[in-house]
Amino acid sequence: MIAVATYYYSDPVDFQRLKPGEPQPAHLLIAEQFDRVCVLGPYEDRLHEMVTGGDRANEHLANIGYRGDEGSWAIILIQESKIGVLRFSRSAKLDFFAAHAAIELPLPSKLPGNFTAMNCADSKSAAFTIVEGNDRRYVVLGKIAD
């Protein structure tokens, strides 16, 4: 049985610490513990990648009635006994860019050379970075290269 999970509607992650071009390990930015971290972009309401704990996360998202929409995105924290959902509002100060995004933006070329964008990452390798473009700041999940 999965423990009751956290479902936030505020910004419980210290994204203010991020500077463009300087990826930071996710565990330094997120106060909650996690084994794996994934992101859901606008209009996404389930994890599409096959990741450890992904089925449990999708079941939890369905149980709480999570629905992605134009104005929000989420970070999913997966632990063996708990699933956490951190929901964020999109704005020019803080938006989201998915590794799988098919939109025409020059943002991937602005990613740091030592950073690979991903939709899910384990706690040891997960990192966030910020890229700027189109008068917006975008959060990107990924990992820092060894």
Explain this structure to me?
Helix content is 10%, strand content 33%. It contains two helices and ten strands. It has a five-stranded mixed sheet, with helices on one face. A hairpin with a 2-residue loop joins strand 9 (126-133) and strand 10. The longest helix has 10 residues, at 54-63. Mean pLDDT is 83; it is low at 1-6.
Properties at a glance:
146 residues, 5-stranded mixed beta sheet, 10 strands, globular, disordered N terminus
Largest pleated sheet: 5 strands, mixed
Oligomer: single chain
Nearest-integer average pLDDT: 83
SS-derived structural category: mainly beta
Write the layout of secondary structure elements.
Layout: E1 7-8, E2 24-25, H1 26-29, E3 36-40, H2 54-63, E4 72-78, E5 83-89, E6 95-96, E7 115-117, E8 120-122, E9 126-133, E10 136-144
Parallel strand pairs: 1-5, 6-10
Antiparallel strand pairs: 2-9, 3-4, 3-8, 4-5, 7-10, 9-10
